[in-house]
Amino acid sequence: MPSPNPSQTAQPVEIRFDCQLAHGGPVCEVKNFRNIKELYFRMAEAIGVDVNKILFVTVNTEKCDMTKLLGGQIMFGDFLYCHVSAPTTTVINVQKVSQMFGLTITDNGNGQAFVKGKRAGSVVEHNDDILPGDAILSINDEVMIGKRHIDVARKLRDVPIGSMVQFVLQPPVRGFNMVGGRSKAKVSGDINKGGMTVRIKANGDAEVVEGDKPCKRSAIEIIDQMLEDYVGIRDRELSLSIYESGTKSSDSGSFLDTVTSAYPMFAFTDQFILDVWNIISDAESGVMPKKPT
Questions:
Q1: pLDDT value at position 76?
Q2: 3-class secondary structure per residue, the chain
Q3: Are strands 135-139 and 103-107 parallel, antiparallel or unpaired?
Q4: What are residue 6's phi and psi, to 5 degrees?
Q5: pLDDT confidence of 206, banded at 50, 70, 90?
Q6: Confidence of residue 4 (pLDDT cuts 50, 70, 90)
Q7: Which positions ≥6 away from 67 have C-beta within 8 Å?
Q8: How confident is the model at residue 231, as a pLDDT?
Q9: 92 neighbors 167 (Cβ within 8 angstroms)
Q10: Contact present, 291 and 226 (Cβ < 8 Å)
Q11: Residue 36 confidence (pLDDT)
Q12: Is residue 256 within 8 Å of 269, Cβ to Cβ?
């Protein structure tokens, strides 16, 4: 048997990215992390902060932009900005006036849930004491540190309408976003790895994979938006998991059974699941999906 051509032998891909404190500091390098927790530890070591002070990470912007959060995929060449907690906390009391509290919750994958957004028309929309990026330390004296965003959303959902809710929040450092901006001379990763990304899987592990096609990316984003509307969370990996369940289901009935058994905590309606099935079907057929109206 002929020996393999060395030039055709697959070489391990080095996972390497540049990172920096969002409010300014030297550009540092993190590489060859195996999961999201290890990425956070590597970034904390590189920039010289306690890992528990990193609230969240944005990609390619130093601003507190909730649309640019580190998610399930990182493109080679992306630049990571670490947003750390401010030294102060805020205590606010808000009355729950409807079943949907008005907050979109997500988490950083390393034990800290935080506010991703506020619904228009909600009781918290114009409350400047609670802002996107604020870490949720406790709700009604129950510690939220170490809990997933799903647990925090469930806690808020279980509060009776008409009751007061006390939040203890910790904001990120804000207001210094242009200090010590990104070094233009340094670009992380290998920008010639066409279409390749680092995917953070549902179990937190990192792997190098081919990037998703546009129809699939759009479908996952729509499912993520639907989850926000339905249960008040944003979770791209959950949306991806639901999408992949759809690709493995033979029909809408089996997809409904799979989703309802896998995620009973959400109590999805049949119509919600059917809408998601249609979105996945369109994407898999090469049709750009649209969000149901």
A1: 82
A2: CCCCCHHHCCCCCCCEEEEEECCCCCCEEEECCCEHHHHHHHHHHHHCCCHHHEEEEEECCCCCCHHHECCCEEECCCEEEEEEECCCCEEEEEECCCCCCCEEEEECCCCCEEEEEECCCCCCCCCCCCCCCCEEEEECCEECCCCCHHHHHHHHHHCCCCCEEEEEEECECCCCCCCCCCCCCCCCCCCCCCCEEEEECCCCEEEEEECCCHHHHHHHHHHHHHHHHHHCECCHHHHHHHHHHHHHCCCHHHHHHHHHHHCHHHCCCHHHHHHHHHHHHHHHCCCCCCCCC
A3: unpaired
A4: -55, -35
A5: low
A6: low
A7: none
A8: 81
A9: yes
A10: yes
A11: 83
A12: no
- Helices 236-248, 252-262: crossing angle, 10 deg rounding: 140
The token pair that represents 70 in the structure block: 């580190």
Separation of CA 170 from chain center: 19
Q: Kindly report the length of the chain.
A: 293
Reply yes or no on whether the pLDDT at 172 is more than 50: yes
Could you give the CA distance from residue 92 to residue 192 in angstroms, rounded to a whole number?
49
Residue where the block lists tokens 């609670």? 130
214-231 vs 236-248: helix crossing angle, rounded to 10: 120
204: confidence class by pLDDT, cuts 50, 70, 90 = low
- What is the average pLDDT value for the chain, to the nearest integer? 84
Separation of alpha carbons 137 and 210, rounded Å: 37
For 93, the token pair is 């009391």
Q: What's the token pair of residue 266? A: 């959400």
Instruction: Report which residue type is found at 12.
Output: P
pLDDT at 201 exceeding the cut of 90: no
